[in-house]
Design goal:
Length: about 350
Amino acid sequence: MSRRVLITGLSSYWGGRLAQELEKDPEIDVIIGVSTEDPNLPLERTEFVRIGTHHALLRRIVHAAEIDTVIDTRLIVDSVTAPPKVAHEQNVIGTMNILAACGGPDSPVTKVVFKSSAHYYGCERDDPSFFGEEMRRPHPPRTRLESDIVEADDAVRDFAARNPHVTVTTLRFCNGLGPDLHNSHSRLFELPAVPGILGFDPRYQFIHEDDIVGALHYAATTDLPGVYNAAPDGVLVLSEVASLLGKPYAPLLPPWGTSLATTATNLVGIRIPDEVRQQLRYGRGLDHRKLKASGFRFGLTTRETVQAFAAALRLKPLRESGEAPYRYEREVEEFLRWSPSVRHDE
């Protein structure tokens, strides 16, 4: 069955990567991406519409293009990337607006995929060894970002309850890692030594960026109602991660105190957000059996993901000296797609 897909957050790394992946799928008939900013990756048959998350405008696009599958990739999961107010607007208000655009008895939408985060569970001293999808976080959110993620995730759950005819999939991803993925953990791992908190050696799972895209694609083309943890096989403590990266483990950050944020920043030279400091202290594990039982297969384990990242770090100088990054130009894109002078492969 062909699908008509709408991707929100096309200008985000995940929105662009997912669009590229869906373009390879002959089962996907139409791909429309929306965002307030230009796409950051080259796309061939994805149509781009520059709008935000205003539900009335989104609803018009959903109905006019007869969209049956909506994939929401916008969730901010690293508080370094946006001010708290911007993150709240995008994570909570934006999610509610998108859900409003998808609902209603006359809506053509039959599937919604929501890219969520393991920050939903938090990181605390008395956490279970592995969080299952049925578990609520045992403690209230510590940070505004975690609170926003819980609120957005719960809004999706409520939407699913109100719209039983729609297949709603929530994917809660563990920490992502990859050569082209830039987040707080990748910045820490690029340092000469891997910093840690004195007295702690936390457990980690890392999912490769290609497996994140693969899981989103899988959810878009498979009926997966409910919540699914997305984490590969294997768990590593942070000192093992450092060893695989070929770097010393340096647990020098102070474990307690209100000056921790300032001290940590001074010690390592970059900002360590609150949600990452919690992980550096207590770590986290996700039970991934439900997603694997559905038929999805991860390409890399946690160990292999870290090893692949280590190899990418060694090649980083060569990669950075390559061709210039992609830049979206509407006139050029329209010429390449629609001009009769351009020859396209049959």
